Amino acid sequence: MAEKDKKLIDSDEEDVDETDEETALETQTNESGTDLDEKEAASDETEVESAQVSDDKLPFPRATITKLIRKNVSKGKQIKGTVKDEMNLWVATMVERIAKKMNSQPYTFVNYDMLKDAVAPYEDIQGINKQREQLVGKINLIKDECDKVIFQIDVEIKSKSVSLKLESEDLPFPKATITNKLRKYLGEGKTIKGPVKKGLNVWMGNIVERVSKKMDSYTYPYIDRSMFKEAIEPYEAVGEIELEKERIIQQMESMKTACDLLVMEIERKFKL
Question: Which of 44, 214, 237, 267 is positioned for an S-S bond with 231, CB 3.0–4.6 A?
């Protein structure tokens, strides 16, 4: 028990030592940067905004941020006070974003791999334009595929019109029967052209022929209702298939519109 307590005490002492070292380092940095800050403040009397954020509200020591900025700017350039304060606050915001990104992982720890994943998007700033071009290109490919689907359904299939032999006067159904059935389902006052009456007559005869041959294909000495139902099933499904084609076309058009909106958003947000 005593040994365990000793380990805990040693661990606490290590944490205290680290904290003391960090405090000493920050104090030293503050002292080294004081003269520079004073010179800059004195060289620009109009820079009243440098005092807009009090030291106790800044997440990092002013001198620390000033020293880091000065290290990477040309010698002799004056750093405005607002730049130092804004950079100070912004760095804290960036740390917050990275921490929240790592915290979003479903683990009880954060490791180096999580850190690399969290900072990766910020490291790839130079490649944003390339990403934008790639995303727009991929989205345009989706639009092209949508156009192909629409073309296949709306043009190729619908363009395959049936050629009916209308020369023969030997029609499978009485003319009046077909004409009366047509009139029953057409709008009042519509004129039915002769080729329509004859063509539908011939076509319906072809349908009966196909269904009959389908029923005859079964290896039984009879034809029953189940064979008939199975033979006409493809024709019964055509109506639903046509509706589904229309739905697919509408979905493709919606996807194209969504792609256009995505491209607009990418072009707007991926510009640096």
Answer: 214
For the chain, how big is the Rg over CA atoms in Å?
A: 40
User: With 0-12 CB in 10 A as exposed, 13-18 as middle and 19+ as buried, what is 146?
Assistant: buried
pTM of the model: 0.48
Domain at 21-123: CATH code: 1.10.20
Angle CA 177–182–187, to nearest 5: 145
> pLDDT tens-digit profile of 201-247?
888 998 999 999 999 999 999 999 999 999 999 888 888 888 888 89
Domain coordinates of the chain in residue numbers? 21-123, 129-269
| 143 and 246 Cβ atoms separated by less than 8 Å | no
